[in-house]
UniProtKB/TrEMBL annotation:
Residues 333-346 have a biased composition (Basic and acidic residues). Residues 347-357 have a biased composition (Basic residues). The lineage of its organism: Bacteria, Pseudomonadati, Pseudomonadota, Gammaproteobacteria, Lysobacterales. It comes from Stenotrophomonas terrae. This is TnsE C-terminal domain-containing protein. Residues 270-311, 333-364 are annotated as: Disordered.
Amino acid sequence: MTRMVFKSVANLTEDPVEVFWLAGFVCNERNEWQVRVVYRNKRTGELIPMCEPIGMLPILSLGTWFDYGLLQTEGLPGDLMEVVIPDVGQPEVITSADMPSSLYRLPTSRAGHQRLFRYRTRHGVVHIPAVELIRALFIHNRALALALMRPAGLEQLYIPMAPGPRELATLCFTKEIAKSVLSRELAMEFAWLVLDVEARRSWESVRCLSAGQDCIFFEPPPIRGSSWQFRGIRHENQMLVLELNNLSGRAVPVKILEYTHPDLKKAIRAGVSGAKPGNPKGGDKPDTGEPGDDIDVAGTDQGSSGYRNPLVANMGRRQSAFESQIKVIKKEIEVEQAPREPTGKEPKKKPRHKKKIQVTTSERAGGKGLRPIDFGILCRAPLHRIGDLVAFDETIRHMRDRLPDVQFAAGLVLLKQGKAAASVGSAPRAAMVVRINRLKEPPIVLIDIDRTGIVALSLMVLHFKGGEKEDWIERAIQKTLNGWADVGGHWSTDVEAEMEPMCRSERIPKAMVPREGFEKQAEGWALRLIDRLGL
């Protein structure tokens, strides 16, 4: 799995530290916006103020912690909760001094005199820091974080259009937002932000009400009957949102949404009618890192060339919940590509070795010319625990080493909440999705789920038939995972039948058992999977 080490945090102390509070935005002497973060030493309780690049905002939820700079994804504080907010746009505005000390003790002199929103619901009184609601509504990646406090910053990411409802809208993204972070979900989030009049007004209010202030504040948009799923703390009937994972009730004011980007290209053979997907010569290849890479994130004194060409660390996605059902279309630019003449020699690929990648979350280029890092589409500091999926991860490593000509891409996702099987204790259950791409062959997707508390579960394999668009493959994965949760912890035969026209589902029982001592068995499991899948 990708490990992310933040040098600025590593230099604070040798003890583990957690994000205790976000105390405002500040613009430094280089005209770069930063977040005033208050860290807490987990051993001593000491509060440590620090200014971090605003590009880190996507991962700065309360309770996120670091072990000598290494971002941790396990053991986050709080429990999973769900409430319905009558109207997000009608909160009581309070300060940190008004929040019950039994819920979260904020020393004003160190953590700042901050703004929170209070909502009264049937389930109790909900408190949420203004900055956390900003993160949930608007900050889905580094590019949006950088644009937040800049005048006309949002207009740098797309070709502007007037807000308001319409039948068809085309989002024309610019190169200031990386192609590698584009997806159906991001397109919908972005369309809501720029086309919904109240959402856009709310975005603009962040800069107007927070710039030059010692607190973060904004005017939330009206969203009625919004269901919130969050990690939080509860004391009696009082709740504090540490990380808002999902909120419903929003609607994108279009029926058909198209999106395009200068680097969304599809290669077609010269002189041949009909397009075949591929990377045009000289085109940008998205770099999302590889499972197992160490991503070394520089401190505030080192930067990048702004938004462009970031390395993307896929760390799990926040679930989008829109009321409107719209059609989303990715438009690609067709580029003519001359066919390559056969050489008769097969290129040899060396086994891949783990590497350390130097990146930054700052805005400007420094002396070392570090690449920027983005945190993936709708990415947040993950709540999941990898659990026994480490066995699957190790097995995939051995498969990758055995098959240097086959591409493997892996990532962890959270299961849809609301069903008992979708959680492990108070935390969401995680699943690992592995995509296998072979030359001139349809993709294969492997899905495994954390087995904690599960007696038996087969490994799921999705054999696609070829020609499927990326959005459809992603929806097939989501349908499979949702089906597993909906039927109480078993693969759904109804979902398998529904997807049969596009992909064949295969269950492989006892693929990686027993998982104790997996280090010694993973290579054997890998060989058996290679044989079973015909790789």
